[in-house]
Amino acid sequence: METEKRLPNLAETLFVLIGFGLIMILFIIKFEISIHLALLTTWFLIMLVGLKIGYNYMEMQRGILKGINDGLEAVLVLLSVGALIGTWIAGGVVPSIIYYGLAIIEPNIFLMAAFIICTVTSIATGTSFGSAGTAGIAMMAIGASFGFPLPLVAGAVISGCYVGDKLSPLSDTTVMTASLSKVDLIDHIKSMLTVSIPAWLIAAVLFLVTGFFYNGSGDLSAATSTMASLREYFSISWYMLIPAVVVIILLAFRMPSIPVILFGAFLGTIWAFLFQGATFLQAFNIMYAGNSITSGVPFIDNLLNRGGIVFMLDVIALIIFALGVGGLMERIGVLRAVGNYLSKWANNPGRTTVSTLLAGFLGNLFGGAYVSIITASKITGDNYDRQNIDRRVLSRNTEAGGTVTTPMVPWSDGGVFMATALGVSTLSYLPFLWFNFLVIIISVIYGYTNKFIWYTKPKTAVPESIEEISEPVVGDLKLS
User: Fold this and answer.
1) Are strands 473-474 and 477-478 parallel, antiparallel or unpaired?
2) Res 466 pLDDT > 60
3) Which helix (H) or strand (E) holds 478?
């Protein structure tokens, strides 16, 4: 006879959420134990509650497997980007970007330039991971040469990368959010612009002002030394940038990201063979093993000795454990219970906005970018309908709570990748994610001031006029 199942009550829900937080604090901060083991331990914490409310192990295991399966696309992207980073460094693509960046960019405008360059790259490619792993690494090297603290540079890089991640029609998270929120893709992007444009402008000014007033900027001797080292170990030329241009064009034409990124990695292999003195087998193996040089410049070695599929294996293991946490939470109903509590509290546009932001952040805590989009849109979506708030507001808030908070969580896919690729810990760069924080702040302000909060007409049992019958409607959203 099957055991009767129920949703976790408030005490059980708080036990899971508070227990999760305590395990993370104890393992990571107090005892300095691997985040992997912390996440694995939370599986058993959640399972205890699952057993108490009627689930057996096999049912919970299916939840774990479903959670992992839902995030496998991110795993494939990470493997592809790892191969790309390695071959683009070995092939001279990234070193050439660093070299020309040092030659062109003035130190006092560097932070804003890094923010803009990563913005343009991420919008053109639709991938924050690919942008950070290529242009981002180059900006980190340039910033270090100019004497900027790496966490500050990482903040500018990641801020720019997540502009495109949440706005580009080529981004998987943008498309996924529009789909789950039942909103047209272009309408979703237009809605996000109302928040993203002011957030971007303010962030750009902040990075510009910081660049002018930061005391450590302007170390041109270090920049000159870096350029000399790059010239010594790499062939630097404009045609080294061809693989980057090809990949950006292919992605701009909406070609599938994973094969395009892998094709870019193969181009990097060819470039390493043709122009950088590697044998073809050595260059080909870099896709798996990553790049390795000894330049004598410590931070250059640190930034350019990376990449390859091996480089991503630790990241992928962490993401799998995190996705398992999200799958377990979903399976035993913790996320649904949280949604029920939030919907009772969120009875106006301001609270409804905050509830979506919280649901998205919880998704990142218990899974990653894809999980956060699902939790934010599914947990709070019905509440928008009950208040006749247009679902474009839901989709916009889902990106604000889900996509842009991803790099803020040390064990999420975005947080792990950014820390690994850029060589700066999540907690170190966190205070400098100015664009990301501004998106959240402006979203909350709009919610409580009723700015850019659009409404739909309540459903009526009988149409009031012939015109109302003839006007096309999808759910509550008119197509006008």
Assistant:
1) antiparallel
2) no
3) strand 477-478
- CA dihedral over 272, 278, 282, 286, signed as positive or negative: negative
Q: Quick check: 462 pLDDT over 60?
A: no
Token output for 265: 């990695």
The CA distance from 32 to 142, in Å, is 31
Question: Do 318 and 362 contact (CB within 8 A), yes or no?
Answer: no
Q: Other C-beta atoms within 10 Å of 3: how many? A: 11
Instruction: Give backbone dihedrals phi and psi of 152, rounded to 5 degrees, phi first.
Output: -65, -45
The pTM (predicted TM-score) of the whole model is 0.79
Inform me whether the pLDDT recorded for 56 exceeds 70.
Answer: yes
Mean pLDDT lowest for which of 95-109, 182-196, 380-394, 430-444?
95-109
Are 391 and 384 a contacting pair, CB within 8 Å? yes
The DSSP code for 296 is S
Lowest-pLDDT choice from 156-165, 340-349, 445-454, 461-470: 461-470
- What is d(CA 42, CA 69) in angstroms, rounded to the nearest whole number? 19
HEC sequence for 130-186: HHHHHHHHHHHHHHHHCCCCHHHHHHHHHHHHHHHHHHCCCCHHHHHHHHHHCCCHH
Helix then strand then coil, % of the chain, to nearest 5: 75, 0, 20
**Secondary structure of residue 424 in the 3-state scheme:** coil
CB 142 within 8 A of CB 416: no
Structure-token pair, residue 203: 């962030």
